């Protein structure tokens, strides 16, 4: 009964959500596109001819947005699920945390990536702190992997939930990148169980100093 009530609440929120409605008008596969659009407006990240790595890409709204800008670069979209084709993108189907998938990514990269971005999150269990920690681990793994593939002036963007691992993630970002900034897009919403979602933006590659 409780699960059905939560499902109905989610459906009702989706119907009222202005970003869900706008995504249908603009042709984006999910409302999450507007989070990346806000991040880009704030930090002026994406330019044509870039190499972009999109981790946890399904259903593809981030890759959709970037593909409109990066028409002569390379966009690699990685997810467990197969997605409908997106122009100007290369799709890798696999678990990002698996070393074989990471090797596939490196093989597809012919140059360092200017942007590594991740909207990965675990399926929530209902235990707020546990879900925050598990999503945080995905963020950390993506951040550590990016050391090998990101350019010296590149950007790392990742979803994080406010929770017990938040400070640890920010501290790791400061060790790896030149500058770390936490930004909460207006289009981010409070999830069921009152999760608060933000994005960490790192700028400047491993063992250099700049800004995120």
Q: Could you explain the architecture of this structure?
A:
By secondary structure, this protein is of the alpha/beta class. It has one domain: 3-Layer(aba) Sandwich (Rossmann fold). It has a 7-stranded mixed β-sheet with strand order 3-2-1-4-5-7-6, sandwiched between helices. Strand 4, helix 6 and strand 5 form a beta-alpha-beta unit. The longest helix is centred in the middle third of the chain and has 22 residues. The protein is globular and about 40 Å long. The C terminus is likely disordered.
Strands, helices and their partners?
Elements (H helix, E strand, L loop, with lengths): L1 H15 L1 H9 L6 H11 L7 E5 L5 H9 L4 E6 L9 E5 L5 H10 L4 E6 L9 H22 E12 L4 H11 L2 E5 L13 E7 L9
Parallel strand pairs: 1-2, 1-4, 2-3, 4-5
Antiparallel strand pairs: 5-7, 6-7
Helix pairs in contact: 6-7
Keywords:
212 residues, alpha/beta, 7 strands
Percent in helix: 40-55%
* Spatial strand arrangement across the major sheet: 3-2-1-4-5-7-6
* Fraction in beta strands: 15-25%
Distance between the first and last residues' Cα: 44 Å
Number of domains: 1
- The succession of helices and strands, N to C, reads HHHEHEEHEHEHEE
Secondary-structure class: alpha/beta
The biggest beta sheet is recorded as: 7 strands, mixed
């Amino acid at each position: 009964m409780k699960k059905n009530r939560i499902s109905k609440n989610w459906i009702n929120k989706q119907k009222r959500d202005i970003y869900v409605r706008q995504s249908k008008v603009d042709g984006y596969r999910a409302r999450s596109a507007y989070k990346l659009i806000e991040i880009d407006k704030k930090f002026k990240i994406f330019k044509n001819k870039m190499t972009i790595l999109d981790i946890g890409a399904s259903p593809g709204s981030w890759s959709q947005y970037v593909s409109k800008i990066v028409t002569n670069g390379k966009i690699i979209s990685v997810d467990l699920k197969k997605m409908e084709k997106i122009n100007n993108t290369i799709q890798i189907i696999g678990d990002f945390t698996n070393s074989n998938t990471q090797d596939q990514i490196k093989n597809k990269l012919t140059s360092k990536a200017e942007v590594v971005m991740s909207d990965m999150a675990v399926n929530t269990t209902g235990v707020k702190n546990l879900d925050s920690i598990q999503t945080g681990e995905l963020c950390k793994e993506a951040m550590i992997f990016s050391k090998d593939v990101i350019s010296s002036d590149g950007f790392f963007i990742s979803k994080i939930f406010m929770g017990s691992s938040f400070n640890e993630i920010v501290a790791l970002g400061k060790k790896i990148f030149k500058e770390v900034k936490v930004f909460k897009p207006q289009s981010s919403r409070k999830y069921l169980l009152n999760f608060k979602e933000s994005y960490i933006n790192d700028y400047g590659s491993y063992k250099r100093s700049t800004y995120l």
